[in-house]
Design a protein that fits this description.
Helices cover 61% and strands 10% of the residues. By secondary structure, the protein is an alpha/beta fold. Strands 2-1-3-4 form a four-stranded mixed sheet, with helices on one face. Helix 23 (660-668) links the parallel strand 12 (652-655) and strand 13 (675-678). Helix 3 (39-62) packs parallel to helix 8, helix 12 (382-397) runs parallel beside helix 14 and helix 16 runs parallel beside helix 18. The N and C termini lie far apart (104 Å).
Length: 695
């Protein structure tokens, strides 16, 4: 019992530290090359070499995807080195002790030299040469060529596969985790075939080394046996040749197995089943060739002089296989007919059009000339830009923008693009992808040579200029951007403008679930006790509609929980929330000195709006005379244009809290870029600077 315990501990420690097995194995290989081995240990190592070769061949047959055996190139190198070290060790024993008889290099080499080739060294040499020719000329040469072609085709196909992954990701078919996994698999596949291209050459050169080793062993053994050990000429030739041939065969067979394994793995296509299943399924799927083959064998059996029994036996076997294949083919045909009949019956039933009702929340369609702009294979891709846009919108507004589906549309003009929301176009523009857009911020006076246009996002006057004029335009005071930036800016601002339409009940529920994980009490009190998901959704939509960030969702929900018992009026709840997040609301619009520049609404205008409010059971609304409404809008626009020129900041109208939402409703349609704040939303520490009065 005592010796067994340390051995168990050693095996357990090796199992726990499997990373030590490889360096220990390399050290053992080096020791085999240097230290003379006893014949018993050499027999064990030769048997291990044969076993490893068989295992690698069988694993290669049963892998479903070549990348599953990605260690094969490295393992091939180590096994080849191990086999060459055994050649060196056996050569040492043959030359030192060959005069003692055919047992000088161990029983394995003796068995291969005597039993396998019948003790005839001439037959042994011929068999060895045939094996080497098969390995070098046929298997190795084909495997090397296949490795070269596969590696090249794999690398050539990578851009297209990456484009497909990015397209699926943008279309929402896969998520980022699955996309990352596919990219890693694609990289692993390219690295594997690249490594196989070089590793398969080890076995090719190993065959050449085997021929040289057998020549050296026979020549050296003959000289040593005759000159040093005093053997007669015939005995020396016979003894050393049998030992050398046995040594050559005992290494040629594993080398041949490794070469076959390499060829199988290199030619293996990814499949859901192993190689044996694929061969049997694909080779015997059609019974007609097998039946014809059975008939040909039967005809050959009738020719005088040919082995009738052998051909008839094979013909009978092939006939049986053909019959089984025929029965399976008929069964598949019947199943196909039943499936077609079921489809026809289903076609007569009411058509299911649910899939046709699905639309992409956001989509970008481009004309044919803009396809290179959204090509993910470019060094700076617009696909990466979209990821940044989605991330930035999440930071600015606190919402998760759905994936943007990018596709080409032949109905668009060559340089046009369209932005779609739920299948409906909401914005359109034109780009010249090789030129730059020079935008006049209102201060540039110099004239530029180019194509006049308007910047699609803000409608500023601009010109498309050549890259050679870019520096001149910048020095002249123009803002110069490339086509990709123009598209990204237009897309960002368009999404911001319509972001509230992307907040549905399902999206709201996702946000609520996120808060529930960290603040369960808030959710327990608010939904569904005080408010429904739909009511919370409407409050969030109101906030985002005015470009108010809802990132601080906890504060928003806390405020709703406080005021929901008193009122369920969505407008009032929105105002309470705005007042609760006033600090972050003002921070976004303060200048570098911490000032909040505003346009103050005069008391007389406020009174006009207050008097026009009509209160009903359904809520309050603004019933303002159309002429007065136009007058107020024009006055606000005039004051804003005067106080905030083109190069100025964000226009903000400051009014009483009781009329803020109604003033916003009045201005939203005609002056969408003007923000409306109430006095209650501004913290006391904020320095409010009036720079104009609406009166």
């Amino acid at each position: 019992m005592t010796p067994t315990k340390p051995r168990s501990l050693t095996l357990a420690s090796l199992a726990r530290n499997s990373d030590l097995v490889l360096p220990i194995g390399v050290v053992v290989i080096l020791l085999v090359m240097i230290i003379p081995l006893p014949t018993v240990l050499l027999d064990l190592l030769i048997s291990l070499n044969v076993s490893l070769s068989i295992i690698m061949l069988l694993v290669g047959m049963y892998v479903l995807d070549p990348v599953e055996f990605s260690v094969f190139p490295s393992l091939l190198l180590l096994v080849t080195l191990f086999r060459l070290s055994l050649n060196l060790a056996s050569t040492r024993l043959i030359l030192l002790h060959g005069g003692e008889g055919t047992t000088a290099a161990g029983k394995v080499i003796q068995s291969f030299g005597q039993f396998v080739v019948g003790g005839n060294y001439v037959v042994g040499i011929v068999v060895f040469i045939v094996l080497v020719v098969i390995q070098y000329v046929v298997i190795n040469h084909g495997a090397v060529r296949i490795s070269e072609v596969t590696a090249r085709f794999t690398l050539d196909a990578m851009p297209g596969k990456q484009l497909s992954i990015d397209a699926d990701l943008n279309a929402g078919i896969i998520n980022e985790v699955e996309a990352r996994t596919r990219r890693e698999q694609l990289t692993a596949e390219a690295e594997f075939y690249g490594a196989m291209d070089g590793a398969i050459r080890f076995t090719q050169r190993d065959a050449v080394a085997s021929i040289l080793i057998i020549i050296i062993n026979i020549t050296g053994g003959f000289v040593i046996g005759v000159v040093q050990q005093g053997l007669d000429l015939l005995q020396a030739v016979q003894t050393y040749t049998i030992l050398t041939v046995g040594d050559g065969l005992v290494t040629a067979v594993p080398s041949l197995l490794i070469s076959v394994a390499g060829g199988i793995i290199t030619t293996r296509a990814a499949s859901d089943s192993n190689l044996g299943d694929d061969i049997s399924r694909q080779l015997f799927i059609n019974y007609r060739p097998i039946m014809i083959g059975a008939g040909i064998l039967t005809a050959l059996a009738l020719i005088p002089g040919l082995p009738t029994f052998s051909f008839l036996t094979l013909a009978a076997i092939m006939g049986a296989i053909a019959y089984v294949s025929y029965r399976r083919a008929e069964a598949r045909k019947l199943a196909t007919e039943n499936a077609d009949a079921a489809k026809q019956r289903a076609a007569k039933s009411p058509e299911k059009v649910e899939a046709l009702l699905r639309v992409n929340p956001l989509a970008l369609e481009v004309g044919y000339g803009l396809i290179p702009l959204v090509d993910p294979n470019r060094e700076s891709t617009f696909v990466d830009r979209i990821k940044l846009i989605r991330r930035q919108l999440a930071m600015d507004l606190g919402i998760i923008v759905p994936p943007i589906h990018i596709t080409d549309n032949l109905q668009l003009t060559f340089r046009s693009y369209a932005i779609l929301l739920k299948g409906v176009e909401i914005a359109r523009g034109d780009l010249m992808i090789d030129d730059y857009l020079a935008i006049n911020p209102g201060t540039a006076q110099a004239e530029l040579d180019g194509i006049e246009t308007r910047e699609p996002t803000f409608g500023l006057p601009a010109k498309w200029i050549k890259p050679t004029d870019r520096e001149h335009a910048q020095l002249s005071g123009y803002t110069v951007v490339d086509a990709q930036t123009v598209l990204a800016t237009h897309l960002t601002e368009t999404i911001k403008k319509h972001a509230y339409e992307l907040i549905g009940r399902q999206e709201t529920q996702v946000l609520l679930d996120t808060v529930a994980e960290s603040h369960p009490k808030v959710m327990e009190e608010l939904v569904p006790k005080a408010l429904s998901v739909g009511e919370v959704q409407k409050v969030l939509q109101n906030l985002v509609r005015e470009r108010v960030s809802i990132r601080d969702l906890v504060t928003i929900l806390e405020t709703l929980a406080d005021y929901a018992p008193a009122t369920r009026n969505i407008g009032l709840l929105t105002e309470y929330v705005r007042q609760a997040i006033g600090r972050s609301l003002c921070k976004s619009y303060q200048n570098e000195r911490g000032e909040l520049q505003v346009l103050v609404m005069s008391p007389d205008i406020e009174k006009v709006v207050t008097d026009a409010l009509t209160h009903t059971e359904q809520g309050s609304y603004l019933a303002l005379d159309p002429a007065m409404a136009r007058e107020i809008i024009q006055r606000v626009k005039h004051v804003a244009d005067t106080a905030f020129p083109t190069s100025g900041g964000q226009p903000i109208v400051l009014c009483a809290a009781t009329i803020r939402q109604y003033v916003h409703q009045l201005l939203e349609r005609y002056l969408p870029n003007i923000m409306v704040f109430s006095h209650n939303e501004i913290p006391s520490y904020v320095n409010v600077v009036p720079i104009g009065t609406v009166k």
